[in-house]
């Protein structure tokens, strides 16, 4: 493999750190062009020095002087602001890893696509908010989307493009999260600490809460629809608590192909970083005999309404997925800050989705406008529920 230069958006997060772990173990294969974060200046500066980055960017402009100071004498360029993050994505590099959390990742991810880059996509919210625009931009600019989400990466590995007419369905597996066996009554009182304690995966706070509400699987359903160009009816969800089978593709001859592995994001990330080849990843090897059994359950849309909301948003189309995503981001943040109950997260998303579904956005500016309006509506709904 020739050396690949990487621009890593969201370097200080869970996916960012897993990516850098792979880079560090394969110094002959990768170099770092640019690293970005929101406000984690100390970690970002330390990463930039360790990996010899050319550029380090913080999205929050208030952090610029701290970053400059932390990089003093290193020769590493410092920059700040959302536009500077998008500029980082535009710089020439072989791979852009999109690992910012939330719709904040949309402009830089799209900027990378628009320069025809190979984009390792972890930031599912970017595709959820702007799926049709993103898919069109990928085709227009000859970009490549490499799905890093473990489920989509699994499908990508077993999806026979040349046989796509024979693909009947894809099956996204879901761990069910920490409250898989909880009643609605029991879920009413869960705390942020309980919600972020995922049974199988070690992830950032927002996606951990999304896993607990199963909004994560709803967002992944939308993500899969855009990534694999399949209608919602051909995308199934299967609860599989062990998170060993990462997803499956069903073919017309009855064959079902799956990708398996221990739940460690360094496997799908390694696949993306080395695609179309494979590289070694320092993950535990799967021991099926040791596990003994794998189990499966049907998803429960009554206890986990986000599964239904995501399907409804896809059927509604237009800006509905962007509205759902923005309302969810606001509600999850309020829950993590202790301003909202766990069950209120889905209720806020459902209420905002019912209030406003503007027509399909025609540009990224329109997506951001929809996102902003949905956030205003969500803030008001959260305020009302919190004071009820
Ligand atoms: N973690 C996983 O295992 C996993 C698996 C599949 C998919 N994903 C997806 O990958 C993405 C990242 O998840 P994560 O778990 O790595 O999240 P995380 O640990 O919370 O990290 C988020 C990263 O984004 C940066 N960031 C946050 N807000 C930003 C903003 N407004 N502008 C620019 N940068 C911002 C953060 O910087 P600071 O450190 O400065 O806040 C951090 O570098 C999400 O879309 C998630 O759904 C994650």
TrEMBL record:
Gene3D superfamilies recorded: 1.10.1740.10, NAD(P)-binding Rossmann-like Domain
UniProt binding sites for Mn(2+): 149, 151, 220
Superkingdom of the source species: Bacteria
Domain DXP reductoisomerase C-terminal residue range list: 260-375
Domain 1-deoxy-D-xylulose 5-phosphate reductoisomerase C-terminal: 145-228
NCBIfam families found in the cross-reference section: Dxr, PRK12464.1
Name of the featured protein: 1-deoxy-D-xylulose 5-phosphate reductoisomerase
Taxonomic lineage: Bacteria, Pseudomonadati, Pseudomonadota, Alphaproteobacteria, Rhodospirillales
């Amino acid at each position: 493999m020739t050396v690949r230069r990487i621009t890593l958006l969201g370097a200080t997060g869970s996916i960012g750190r897993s990516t850098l772990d792979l880079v560090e173990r394969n110094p002959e294969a990768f170099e770092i062009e640019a690293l970005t974060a929101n406000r984690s200046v100390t970690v970002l500066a330390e990463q930039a020095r360790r990996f010899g980055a050319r550029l380090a960017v913080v999205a929050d402009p208030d952090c610029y002087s701290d970053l400059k100071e932390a990089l003093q004498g290193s020769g590493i360029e410092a920059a700040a602001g959302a536009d500077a993050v998008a500029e980082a994505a535009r710089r020439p590099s072989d791979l852009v890893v999109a690992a910012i959390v939330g719709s904040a990742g949309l402009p830089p991810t799209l900027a990378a696509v628009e320069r025809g880059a190979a984009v390792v996509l972890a930031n599912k919210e970017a595709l959820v908010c702007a799926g049709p625009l993103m898919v069109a931009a990928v085709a227009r600019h000859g970009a490549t989307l490499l799905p890093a989400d473990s489920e989509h990466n699994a499908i990508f590995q077993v999806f026979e493009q040349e046989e796509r007419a024979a693909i009947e369905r894809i099956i996204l597996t879901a761990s069910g999260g920490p409250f898989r066996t909880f009643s609605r009554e029991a879920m009413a009182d869960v705390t942020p600490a309980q919600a972020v304690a995922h049974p199988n995966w070690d992830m950032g706070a927002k996606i951990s809460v999304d896993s607990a509400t199963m909004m994560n699987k709803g967002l992944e359903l939308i993500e899969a629809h855009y990534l694999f160009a399949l209608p919602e009816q051909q995308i199934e969800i299967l609860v599989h608590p062990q998170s060993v089978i990462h997803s499956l593709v069903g073919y017309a001859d009855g064959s079902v192909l799956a990708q398996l592995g221990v739940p460690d994001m360094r496997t799908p990330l390694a696949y993306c970083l080395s695609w179309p080849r494979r590289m070694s990843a320092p993950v535990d090897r799967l021991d099926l005999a040791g596990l003994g059994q794998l189990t499966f359950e049907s998803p429960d849309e009554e206890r986990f309404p986000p599964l239904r909301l995501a399907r409804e948003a896809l059927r509604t189309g237009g800006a509905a997925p962007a509205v759902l995503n923005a309302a969810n981001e606001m509600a999850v943040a309020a829950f993590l800050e202790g301003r909202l109950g766990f069950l209120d997260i889905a209720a806020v998303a459902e209420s905002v989705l019912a209030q406003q579904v503007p027509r399909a956005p025609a540009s990224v500016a329109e997506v951001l406008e929809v996102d902003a309006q949905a956030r205003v509506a969500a803030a008001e709904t959260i305020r009302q529920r919190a004071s009820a």
